[in-house]
Amino acid sequence: MDTKSLIIEQATALFQQKGYKGVGLTEILKVCGITKGSLYHHFPNGKEELLMACLQSMEEAITTDTEDIFSRYQTAQEATQALIEKLVTDFEREGTITGYTFSSIVSEIASLNDPVLYACSSLYTKIEEIYSKKLVADGFSAEAAHSSALLLTASIEGGIMLCLTKKSSEPLKTISQMIPKILKEFS
């Protein structure tokens, strides 16, 4: 792995665990085993530029994985439940969920600049679009699909945060059980 990729990978994990403000450059340098000069060689504008690279990397990974899961299932309900099942399995195996959420970063968003806001919004929009396309294919109207996709995104994202704070996979399991009822209301 090249140095830039290593920095992005390690910083992403730190930002997810501690939030943007909770991670200092010194910690990033230590975890990556690099010098300040090396970090600024790859990210001349510092920590915020690194954050943007981390968000882009996360967006690509999350979008690709979500699209893969949704392509393997006939309906949005089956695909969403499979996605949640994967999150639950990851949580129960690792005790955390990384790579599928950046809520810890987003929670600090008000203090960050517009490009960071846009990067975060972009990921949520892409996820909603994946859900919405599948719901339209299931026969939902465009309006109902859009509303349902927003609700699914918010539910899963909130469920991830509840799992992390409660140290239990039950919130996502409950959401998964409620998906048929929720989607039936919107169809």
Structure description:
- The protein has one domain (56-186): Tetracycline Repressor, domain 2, CATH 1.10.357.
- It is built from 9 helices and no strands.
- The chain has helices at residues 3-18, 25-32, 36-42, 47-71, 76-94, 103-106, 114-137, 142-166, 170-186.
- Helix 1 crosses helix 4, helix 5 (76-94) packs antiparallel against helix 9 and helix 7 packs across helix 8 (142-166).
- The longest helix has 25 residues, at 47-71.
Class from secondary-structure proportions: mainly alpha
Strand content: under 5%
In the CATH scheme, the class would be Mainly Alpha
Terminal CA distance? 46 Å
Could you give me the name of the CATH homologous superfamily?
A: Tetracycline Repressor, domain 2
H/E element string? HHHHHHHHH
In total, the number of strands is 0
> So how many helices?
9
* Level-2 CATH architecture: Orthogonal Bundle
How many independent structural domains? 1
